[in-house]
Write a structure and sequence with these properties.
Helices cover 44% and strands 20% of the residues. The protein is α+β, with helices and mostly antiparallel strands.
Amino acid sequence: MNFDSILPTFIAESRELLQAMEEALLRIEQFPNDTDTINAIFRAAHTIKGSAGLFGLNDIVAFTHVAESVLDKVRSGELQVAGKLVALLLAAGDHMTVLVNNAADGDELTATTHETGQMLIAQLNIYLGGDGNSAQIASVKVPVEYELFHTTQGGSEVETDLWHISLRFGLDVYRSGMDPLSFIRYLSTLGDIHHILTLFDAMPAAQAMDPESCYLGFEISFKSNVDKATIESVFDFVSENCKIRILPPRSKITEYLQFIADMPGEELRIGEILVRCGTLTEHELETALKLQHDEGAQHARPIGEVLMDAELVPPPVVAAALEKQREVKGSKNSEANLIRVDAEKLDQLINLVGELIIAGASTTLIAKRAGVQELLEATTTLSRLVEEVRDTALTLRMVQIGGTFNRFQRVVRDVSQELGKDIDLIISGADTELDKTVVEKIGDPLTHLVRNAMDHGIESAAVRLARGKPAKGILKLNAYHDAGSIVIEVSDDGGGLNKERILKKAIERGLISESAILSDKEIYNLIFEAGFSTADVISNLSGRGVGMDVVRRNIQALRGTVDLDSIEGQGSTVRIRLPLTLAIIDGFLVGVGNATYVIPLDMVVECIELSAHDHDDSDKRYLNLRGEVLPYRRLREHFEMPGQAARRENIVVVRYGDEKAGLVVDKLLGEFQTVIKPLGTIFQHLQGIGGSTILGNGEVALILDVPGLMKQVIDGPGVENRIGNPSVVQV
């Protein structure tokens, strides 16, 4: 087998196991008696260690074995789960991640990594009863995992590096012309008989004894390099009338366990696994199957239990075979449902689908111009299929945000301990899906918000108790879909924001004038300004005026928005609104003069005609939409486009969050599958424009940034960035 070709699979699976291991460790701290979680942690470490051994990654094997030994003590109940032990195991998991990443890069261990590993091994060794002497631990070897001791009838212990053969000859062995001692003499040609004990337990009373019957039994300690099948073959001529048990030495058990672990992922029965690894012979398997059959279908025990009761196979080997069978079945089920695909290949697929959409739009336009009915029907079918391909391709990149949320379990635990606060993280909406690209880029902004909420938002236990709150603080992460967007909320039940203090700082920094009149929401959102901070003490977590402005910039780069609500004394909520995907959207085409714009269809509520009595000359216009005040703005004026407005104008009512606004356009051109193209660097600072797309006729249409436009429509006419004819935009 070419192990180099499957190393990336090992790396990917190990990272997944380490992530699952970290989540399980965080759970077990809250529920220390959850045996299923404890077993899951142990299995993760055991799987990584076993797989690493296949690739000769001895650093991973040696370190993981020590951690696994501690976990085994936890699993057996010898160690109790406590905060210090969980912290140590989390640190061990971090170091295993470093070792796995090191193996992925093919690098040698750095001195720092080696020292960290030695320090952690020393700490783990204390839990194993060692003295933590790193000099003794530096050359950690994986010891024998199972020791099996055999005793004779007299109770003496048999050496564990010897085969143990238990013979009970049949009564008729002499009548068949066989001499029991001849078999033992022949056995000595295959190795050395270290010890033999003759048993007389089957001997009857003298008056009942038959001189032609054999009542003897033998317990033999035998040293040899041959396999079990060869030893069994010595007794072939008497096997039908004898009871023979052949138990392997300790070293052989270790070989069997390693052989089972290294077996390929074939679906085999327990008996087949044991025969293949050499711990069970075909004859023994047939005997066990016969015993199982004789028990009857209703009362038949599992074959593994039959083998152990008959003492044909050591229990650890049966357990290893059962675990291997479960692993193979689990992997087969996973392989049947899932397939690993390189993310770059998915990105390439999305790009090709985007080009297909553009080509399809061009084909549809040509068909309309030609006016051939058959061609129009064909292009309609093509458009429908392209749309289905688009939707399917986009779902391939959709992932649940729960994976990102769960990473903050560790962040909250570590930071709360550093701050000396008791904080619980509550996650909801973990199954909400969004584009993988968005998930990857939202991690850093969320980290800033979570740390800021824990440092600035949630008070210390003493302060909380003084304010009549529970000593334990609550931090919530929530996600949900709303109007074609995904909303992510970071909430805390801390002290909230002090409006007066924020205003004072903003005036001191010249962000606003002393005479400015701001709403509560506008005041709170001042904290997203660059360099703004109300912290009196600078810590390694926050207070340096960096972080919240970075959050806003990163989210705006994803075509999203962020705002904040707070109630002083009760807590704060930061709300992030993001598009579901950054690649392809359904758009609504509108025309203004000779220019074409695209509005994301999910944000379009309705279209109405702008009647003559709705016209006025004020900069900020409103109309009555069925009893609701609707602010609106003409895109022609907003972008300072030349020419006269159309005689019949239309208003496209858009919604973002809880707010509505109207965009006045000349023409409504209908729905359009929009492939989002980024603007050239020179235009990236423009407000109200979120990207561009290519129409079927080859012209460029600008994609409107509805959140940015709505802010300008609602807040006033102060628009700093104007843009003229979009046909000259660089794409």
